[in-house]
Amino acid sequence: MQFKKIAFFIISVILLITGCDSKNDEKKETIEKKQTKFVISSQITPTITLEKIDNGIDFKEFKGKVVLLNFFATWCPPCRAEIPHLNNLQKKYKDSFEVIALNMGEQTGGQTPKEKIDEFIHEHSISYNVSNEETNFKISDMIGNIKVIPTMFLYDTKGKLVQKYVGIVPEEMMETDIKRALGK
What we know:
Oligomer: single chain
Order of helices and strands: HHEEEEHEHEHEEH
Number of helices: 6
Strand content: 15-25%
Helix content: 25-40%
Shape: globular
Radius of gyration: 22 Å
């Protein structure tokens, strides 16, 4: 019982000291403006405009469609393994669903050369949007600093986040979530 009283007293003193620090009042507020609107180019759609909104992302060119943002890399085996699934879903839901794949560069950290991306798209018969720009890293930071690839974000027709996937995901699971996002 005595231990509980001492612990309560110590915790109270710590909270009082840290909660009443007057130094915070003297500091000037620094407001950092972060970029929330991005225009990227794609192999399929010439430009794609994404803008962060309160509950998600506004995809200007894909209003009324479910959008899957796919953060990938050409050197990543699970990323390559999911391509047929994404192609199938893009084909099956072509009027109401869009995949936007954002390349996260080389293992060395550099940008993937355009020729290598073009060859990768052709080799894997990719039928969805692929972006290979520096902007992809800024979009990653805006959404939540992608640390693992593949990572995908599924947005409903209003741009609200429906599901986040980390790692390779079965096609059936994504299809169930796409139907849910479409209200089916």
